[in-house]
Every structure is written in structure tokens, then in C-alpha cells.
Amino acid sequence: MRDGVAPSYLWIDDTAPAAALPFLVARFPDIGEAVWRDRMARHDVVDGTGAVLGPNSTLRRGTRIWYYREIEAETPIPFEEQILFQDAHLLVVDKPHFLPTTPGGRFLHESLLVRLKNKLGIAQLTPIHRLDRETAGVVVFSLREESRGAYQSLFQKRSVDKVYEALAAPLPGRTFPFTHVSRMVEGTPFFRMQEEAGEPNSETRIEVIEERGALALYRLHPRTGRKHQLRVHMMSIGAPILNDTFYPEALPQGADDFANPLKLLARAIAFDDPLTGQRRRFESARTL
Predict the structure, then answer these.
(1) Nearest of 182, 180, 208, 209 to residue 196 by alpha carbon
(2) pTM of the full predicted structure?
(3) Cα separation of 205 and 212, whole Å?
């Protein structure tokens, strides 16, 4: 692990031998030849035995290549996470808006996982679930591989109670609480979701906590965990979440507007600990 970043790897499944440099340039077209040459010169590209790979090194089927992902001029996220709880098995963190849970796209060091690995030095740290980059709130991490599966199974079996809060327009005439169910599928563009007719696969219970002038504060209880579920469901009932740049319309993507985050917060998570049987509940200290 280097500065909180674990090395990435890929297996070679091509049947014909190939030279390392042209293979990597073809495999990763967004990374230029000069970048791979520089990484190789720094001995940052190796095979599964740890042998350094050069531009002309021969790759054969079954070879595993290890390398470090790098991003130039990564945009800093000017908000800090807070640790809510830590024991021998779990780490619970209060994530800020705009910070991705794991590396992806244009974010590497500015991700919650890499920040925490860098600060705590725990190489096995792994998120048990994830929040959208735009969403703030409670995220649970595993510290040990031997107990990780027991906690992951809670989410797979829907044995975790999750509570979110959102700010959106009020819905006069609507009776609360109520449950919204729908069938969600991948939409257009590729990063959006949409609803369609058919067997429901998503469910959210929606309550109103209070009205705040032209807005209302909602409490959301997702019974399923579809991508963008809460954002799509709130849009569907006529109350898209404040400052949502994906729904109801995908706005042009530019620099983040740090003054206007998506008003969606993962307020709390609760579950029966699979190791101790103890009821655990963790709550965000953030507000909308």
C-alpha cells in the first residue's frame, strides 16, 4: 500500500505472447505510452513474482501484472470525514458530501477508503456498503477479512435498518407515511436510473419530519438498495431532492458546487451484530 492506495492488477488471458508496453497502451487507451514508460522506469509495474516489467518484457497467458493507479492534478475535496466508532472488526465513518466511498473515475486519493487507509494504515479496510459520492452520512467498513462476510451478509439479506433524510418540495394533499414501490432499471445516459412498468424491485417508505417554508424535510426508509433509489423515488412522487444534478434532468457536469450539495443524508444504520448479537445503531452528526 502506498499513501493509502493498494496496487491494482490484471490477468493476461490472451493466448499469443505480447510485449508489455504495447499491450498496456492498447488495454488502457486513456493512459499514454509516456506514462507507462515512466511507471516502468520507476519499477512500478511488476509481474506476479515481483519481477520488474520493462517495455519489451514478454507477457504470456496467465501472467498477472501489478501496478499503481495514478491521477494527475486530482481535485481536493474540502470536507473531512469523522470516525463515529471503531472496534476490532468495524469502523463506522460519517462521510461528507462530494467524497466518493471508493476510488473511481477522477478520484483516487480523494476517496473515503484511501483517506482512511492513509490515516489509519489498515490495509484490509473494506467498505461493507457504499454511498453515492453526492450523499453524506454513515458508512460501515470491515477491518478484518475473517469477519467481513458475516457483516456483508446482513446487507445481502436486508437485515440492516437504514434511515435517510432529504430536503425537497412539500407535497400538499399527500398522506404520510406511505410506501413507494417501482421497477427500476438502467436509464439514459448510462449513469442514471429510471422506472418502468413491471414487477417492482425497489421499495421506500417515506415520511415527513417537518416543513421548512418552501421545503419539507423527509425521512426515508429504503427496504431495497437499488442504485439512486431514493433520488428516483423522490423524483417519481413529484419531489426531487434539492440540488440533485441527475434527476429529474441530468445537468451538464462541471466543477462541483461545494456550496450546494445534494440534500440527502444517510442519517442512521442499525443491525444486530452477527458476532455478539448486540443491537448496534450508528447516527450521523451532520444536518441538512
Answers:
(1) 182
(2) 0.88
(3) 21
- Distance from C-alpha of 141 to C-alpha of 89, rounded to nearest angstrom: 9
Task: Please compute Rg for the chain using Cα positions.
Answer: 22
CA dist 230 and 205 (Å) reads 10
Give the number of other CB atoms < 10 A from CB of residue 200. 12
Span 127-168, pLDDT tens digits: 999 999 999 999 999 999 999 999 999 999 999 999 999 999
Q: Helix H segments across the chain?
A: 20-27, 33-41, 112-120, 145-156, 229-236
**pLDDT at residue 232 in the model:** 98
Amino acid at 70: E
With a CB cutoff of 8 Å and minimum separation 6, the contacts of 46 are 52, 53, 65, 66, 67
130 grid coordinates: 457504499
Q: How far apart are CA 217 and CA 207, in angstroms?
A: 9
The Cα-based distances of 71 to 46, 55, 162, 238 in angstroms read 19, 21, 34, 39
Alpha helix positions (H), 67-194: 112-120, 145-156
Q: How many angstroms separate the CA atoms of 17 and 270, rounded?
A: 52
Are residues 193 and 182 in contact, defined by beta-carbon separation less than 8 angstroms?
A: no
Backbone angles phi, psi at 207, to 5 degrees: -130, 160
139, 129 contact by CB (below 8 A): yes
Partners of residue 283 on adjacent β-strands = 268
CA distance 105 to 94: 22
Any idea how long the chain is? 288
Torsion of the alpha carbons at 168, 134, 137 and 119, rounded to the nearest 10: -160
Q: What are the cell numbers at 153?
A: 451478509
